[in-house]
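REQUEST ID: PR-0412
SUBMITTED BY: lab tech R.K.
PRIORITY: routine
TASK: structure prediction, single protein chain
INPUT:
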Amino acid sequence: MEILLEGLDARHRAVASDGPKALQNLSLRVQAGSHLAVIGPSGAGKTSLLQILATGLRPLEGRLSIGGADPWTLGGTGLKRLRSRIFYAPQVPPLPPRQRVVTALSSARLPELSLAGSILNLIRPQFAQQGYQALCAFDLGEKLWLRVDRLSGGERQRIGLAKAFMSCAEVWLVDEPLSALDPKRSQQAIEALLEEATRRGVTLIATLHQVEVARQMFPRVIGLREGQLRFDLPRESVTDAALRELYNQYEYELEQTPVGPGREASLMLPASNSPVIACR
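STATUS: complete
OUTPUT:
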């Protein structure tokens, strides 16, 4: 789905009505099926942007169009239908600790289930095979039947990403997907996301603290600071000078571990072993 923002302002729910805005006069167009990374120092508005796009936060001003529609004019049924086409992965996945991994993954398919089907899924998971395929993309296939509280923080984060593979969404919004991962797992996770998004034609927007990951792996990079768009560039045009300006007084945040060089070429085509998860 194509996404369009024009002159958009937003404020955190917890901030007073006269408090600072999280996003200011933001205009952005994201074509259907494209992949972009959003970078910027802490407090830049990256998470707020994803929450706006996930229709979890309503803009104060400006225009938001997702798939040609303004979410906030659709009514309850229309908004629910639109949300079923969008997958949002927060930085800390909301995984109930006593729930089995297979059940947590199956929750990504709830929009297509009836109430009775949802209850049945809690008793007897309906998507075990699809869950196993999604986990294998993140080297977690053996964790399918474990409880969530038996997993490490990094494993939980990768399971949160595997839920994207389980969904039938046309837009993936991923917030800081590498924050709990070591360099090897970070590379594996970002490659898996990009490969599967390419195979499905999914629009992928990821916020990242790892600037070099954004520059090497994503074709388009957005720079945010203080809620404002500072640049919107193809990755080869994101210069060191532009990054120094974006991260002025936050230079320590640029000291992130990059993925290995030369990996981006392999992401132009879907991998032959990408999981195939059919959506009804």
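NOTES: Confidence is low (pLDDT under 50) at residues 257-272.
REVIEWED BY: pending
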